[in-house]
Amino acid sequence: MAGDGRVFQVLLGAHSLTEPEPHKRLYRVRAQFPHPGSNIHNNKDDLLLLQLEEKAELNAAVQVLPFQREDRDVAADTVCDVAGWGTISHSGRQPDKLYQVERPVISRDVCNHRTRHDHTITEKMMCTDSRRRDTCKVVHDQSHTKDR
Asked: Which of UniProt's keywords are assigned here (predicted)?
């Protein structure tokens, strides 16, 4: 529950937000654990762990994602899968279906070039070639960043 009394829920197993699906299920959130270094003014340490009130049922549509356990950079040219329901147009319209794209990682040196992100990409961030495609928003340069 949020500090203001609102109940948070997580929707797992969904590919569509509106269509019925056999593995789609809402779970109540028991607790939220923000990264100790996070702050609302930037994307630094932008991570929030959620504890559900009950164990999620794992199936073909709900799987545990592997977590990188060592602090190392993802090599340039590694192709990463990214998925989300972020905005898909300038109007901020959100899709009904989950979007997924594959994007190659760009080295931090290349990404930090003045014509891209001009030294704003930190050691805790990675950068991918967006080719104007992204699951979070339409981007207008050739690179996009995500916290690792």
From this structure: Disulfide bond, Secreted, Signal, Zymogen
Counted residue by residue, the chain has a size of 148
Domain that holds residue 126: 79-147
- What's the rounded Cα separation, in Å, for the pair 132 and 138? 6
Instruction: Taking the CA atoms of 98, 104, 108 and 109 in sequence, report the sign of the dihedral they define.
Output: negative
Q: The pTM is what?
A: 0.68
DSSP-derived 3-state class of residue 60: coil
Q: Domain count of the chain?
A: 2
Half-sphere exposure of 134 (CA within 13 A, CB side): 20
Strand 79-84 to 25-34 pairing: unpaired
How far apart, in whole angstroms, are the C-alpha atoms of residue 30 and residue 51?
Answer: 5
Which parts of 15-77 are beta strand (E)? 25-34, 48-52
In the Cβ-directed half-sphere of 74, how many Cα atoms lie within 13 Å?
Answer: 21
**Could you report the per-residue pLDDT of 79-118, keeping only the tens digit for each?**
988 888 777 777 777 888 888 888 899 898 988 888 888 8
> CA-based angle 54:37:2, to the nearest 5?
40
Residue 73 to residue 110: CA distance in whole angstroms: 14
